[in-house]
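Batch job 17 of 40 flagged for manual review because the log was empty.
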Amino acid sequence: MYQVLAGKKRSLVFPVMCNGFVKLDYSDNVVDTNSDGDTSNDIAYGLFDHEGSFTFEAIVTPYDINGYGRQSASGTIPSFTLSKKIMPSNSHQSTTANYQSELYLPVSGGRLTHEMRIFSNDKFSVSLLNATSFNENQPAEYKIKVSMDIGGSTQTFTTTSAVITANKSSMFKWSSTSDTEGFDSNGRRTFDLLGSTTSHSGAVIGLSGTVENQCHANQELFIRDGFTFTSIGTIASINGTTDVTLNASYSPTLSNGTKVFIHSRKEASYINNTYHIACTYTQSSNRINIFLNGINVLSTKHTQSGTFSFGRTDSFIGANGTGATGTLSAITNKQFMGEMHEMSILNIPKTTFVNKETLLPSLNNTLLYLRFEEIDL
């Protein structure tokens, strides 16, 4: 079967620093039989009446909630592509706590562990979870997180590592001052030369030149052998202008003159791409599978053997439905920032996903289907 997709893909947009969500109202879709508020005897149908196996699918574009750090004695920030799809930087400020972006979603204790809720039901939810530890030259990178309640037992399942990641290479541009040391076998610039070692003892490394404005805590350091870059540890602190201390001793001793590298400019290229995210549940085996772009990135089991059913309550898209505003509201709401293109829930556990650009669910198996195209809003 051939398929032709033309034109710009429209979407439901949750801007950076928003407090928006879509509510799937239970009372608007289900008749309260006795008008007593008891959902157990309601005439439910579709999503709210389903029990057992299912497949959740969504096509989304996540935005970068990290921003791009700040220029200070802890590290110079390279030139980034500015976009409304990236959290504001705090490079221009001296008192970060007073700025709206910090009040809404602070770097410390906020952005770096933020959970962006894609779909939220009392018994089932899907989120993107930021998996980064700093935001200087480090866009947000996302794990997929699923939560399920079976028989009163709520369990959470998260991919081991980030599956939506920043671009770590760029085209190599030659100039008279170019650093030609950090490119790979494909001619892509992947690392920048930080300096050459002048001393090394345990976790402390002395480097040539002034490094205090070129690197920062939590940044990874590398040495090179041909086109192979090997990590030697993560910076715990910067001592003066030329020494760095790693988070652990590095062995063997680095000889003087060894070249040390850091990651080159990273870009949140995912803000201009779409991602197919899916979660399947098979009742007979309690098996949960999480997919990204059709690839199985986690397979696990819920330990409770009861029958799964969606909560007969309001469900939400783009947040958890708390509806908070103001300071720390992004955290309270588990606010999603990005674009929703399509979403569906089927009453069968799919095993393969042939099409990742559009869902086209089988109507015979569809419990919920939303296409967030401009023509449908």
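Reviewer: the log was empty due to a logging misconfiguration, but the result itself is present. Confidence is low (pLDDT under 50) at residues 71-75. Unflagging and moving on to job 18.
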